[in-house]
Amino acid sequence: MEFSKHIKDILQRLPDKPGVYQYYDSEGTLLYIGKAKSLKKRVSSYFTKIKHENGKTRILVRKIVDIKFIIVDTELDALLLENNLIKQYQPRYNIALKDDKTYPSIVIKNERFPRIYATRQIIQDGSEYFGPYASVKSMHTLLELIKKLYPIRSCTYQLSESNIKAEKFKVCLEYHIGNCLGPCVGHFNEEEYNQNVESIRHIIRGNHNDVIKYLKDRMHGFASELAFEKAASLKNRIEILEKFQAKSTIVHPSIHNTDVFGIVSDKKSSFVNYMRIMNGMIIQGFTSEFKHRLDETEQEVLEYAIIAMRDRFNSNANEIFVPINISIEIPGVKAHIPQRGDKKKLLELSIRNANFFMRDKQKQLELTDPEAHTTRTLEAIRDDLRLSELPIQIECFDNSNIQGTHPASACVVFKDAKPAKSEYRTFNIKTVEGPNDFASMKEVVYRRYKRLQDEHLPMPQLIIIDGGKGQLSSAVEALEELNLRGQIAIIGIAKRLEEIYFPGDSIPLYLDKRSSTLRVIQHLRNEAHRFSLSHHRNRRSKNAYRSSLTDIAGVGQQSAEKLLNAFKSLDEIEVATIEQLTKVVNLKIAQSVYKHYNS
C-alpha cells in the first residue's frame, strides 16, 4: 500500500522513545490513540506490515492522513497519558470501556460537619468519593454500619459557625431518636465530629483494624477515668465493627492493600474483574467490559484496565495480582502472578467473576438479540478455525460398533449453531466387514454427500469428524472421490484432549476451553455420539427381538419384521389376540405365534 509523502516524512522523524501517538483522517477527526515503548517501531509497524490480519486495522491504516505524537519519559507515563486522552476524546478505533449504567458511590461532602451518603453524581467540589459500588446492597450495608457506629448528620443545613451562633436552626427528629448529636445547635463540637469522619474514612477503605485499635484505646481511657457509660458505648461500637469484619474476612488477613485483576476474553471483548483487598477482606468488586477495536492482545487490554480501574477507584495499593505477565512497571507497586495458597484462590475468584460476567452478557444478548448472538458465535467459529465463510450449516459424523456388531453411523446437522433435528440422518454400514472405523467413516461421508450432490441440495460450510487423524483422512478420501475436497471445510476432533485436526496437518489446534467455538463443537460431537449410539442400540434390540420371533415355528425374517413394526415390542405381541395378529400376518403364522406365547 502506498502512503503520502507527509506520512513517510513523519515515519522517518519519529523518535525511538516512549510516547503517545494519534491518528487523524482527512477531515481532522481523531481516529486512534496509542501508546508505545518506542514510537518509531510501533507506529512504523502499522505502515510496513504487508497485510494486517484484523480487517478494522486495515481500514484504519487506509484512513490515516496525519500523525501526531507526544514524547514522555517512561512506558507507564505513556499508558497513563493514553488512558486520559482516550477518556477525553473516545476515538472510534480505541478500546471502549462499556458500562451499562452509572454505579453509585459513597461521598464525604466537602463541608463543615460533612454529610456521608450514597450518590450517582460526581461533582468536582473537593468532596471525597469512594466507589463505584457494583453491588448496591453491599454499599447500603456499609452505610448502615456507619450509621450504627457514628451519629452523622443527614440534614442539608449550612452549618457555618455564624449560623450556629445565630441559632438559625432547631434540632430535628434525627436528634431525638439518637441518630444525630445536634451539631446544628452546637451540641457536638467540630473536632470530635471530624475524628468520627476520619474513622468512617478508614472503615470505607477497609482499614477496620486501625479503627478498632483507636476505639479500644479510647475505651480504656474512659474506663480509667471511671467514665463507664462512654466506655460501654465504645465497647458496643467495637463489637459491631468486629462482627462486620468477621463476616467480611474470606482470605488470610496478611493480604493487605492489594488489587486483584482477572481477565477473560472472547472475539469481541475482554472482561476484567477488579477486587480491592484490605486486611484479608474484599472491600470492592467490579467487572467491566472492554470492547475490542483493533487486534489488541489480552496483555494490552489488561494493562489499560489496570490503569483505568486504579484511577477510577482511587487505589493506592502497593501490590497487584494478575493472571498474565504485564510489561508496564508502576513505581512503588509490585505485580506478580500467584502460584499457590490464598493469593492464588483470590486470583481464581476474580477470573471466575469475570467469566460469569461474560457468560451473563452472552445470555442477555441471546435473549434480547438472538440474531446478533448467533452471528457473534458463527464469526468466532470462522475466525478460530480459519474458515473462508460463516459456517451457517455444520454437520458432524460419529460411528458406533459396540463389540463389533451392527456397525452404524449418524450425521447430525446444526444450522446457525443450533441443532436442526429434523435433518439428522442415520446410516447402516453396508460395504465394511467387521469393526473398521476408518472404512466405515469413508462410506457414510461418501453416501451423505453423494446424495446431496444427486439431489442438488445445499452443502454444509463445515464438516466435523468425531475422531483423530485416521478417521479424518478417511473422510477426506470420500470428499476427494466426490470432487468436493477444498469446497467444504473439514476437521476432526479427538476426545482425549479435545485436539482439533486439519487435513494434512499433524499438529493439532487446542481451543480455549472457555471459547464458544469449542462449546459448539462439543455440542455437535455429543449429539452425534448420542444419536449414533441410539441408532446402534435400536438395531441391536430389533435384531434380538427378530431372533426371538424367528425361533417360533413358521415365522421368518419378513413376518418377524411385520410383527415388530405393527406391535412395536415383544410384550405387545405376547398379549395380542388371534384377531389382532391376523391383521398383520396370515392365519397360520398368527396361530403359531399365539400358541407360542399362550401354551
Short overview:
The protein is α+β, with helices and mostly antiparallel strands and 599 residues long. Helix content is 46%, strand content 17%.
In words, what does this structure look like?
With 599 residues, the protein is α+β, with helices and mostly antiparallel strands. Among the domains are: 5-94, GIY-YIG endonuclease (3-Layer(aba) Sandwich), CATH 3.40.1440; 258-366, Nucleotidyltransferase, domain 5; 384-538, Nucleotidyltransferase, domain 5, CATH 3.30.420.340; 551-598, 5' to 3' exonuclease, C-terminal subdomain (DNA polymerase, domain 1, Orthogonal Bundle). It contains 20 helices and 19 strands. It has helices at 5-13, 39-48, 55-63, 75-89, 136-149, 161-165, 173-176, 190-205, 208-224, 228-248, 298-312, 341-368, 370-384, 437-454, 469-481, 516-550, 557-567, 570-574, 578-582, 587-598, and strands at 19-24, 30-36, 66-71, 96-98, 105-108, 116-119, 128-130, 258-265, 269-278, 281-291, 319-321, 334-336, 393-400, 408-415, 418-419, 425-428, 462-466, 489-494, 499-501. The longest helix has 35 residues, at 516-550. It is flat and about 120 Å long. The model has no long low-confidence stretch (mean pLDDT 83).
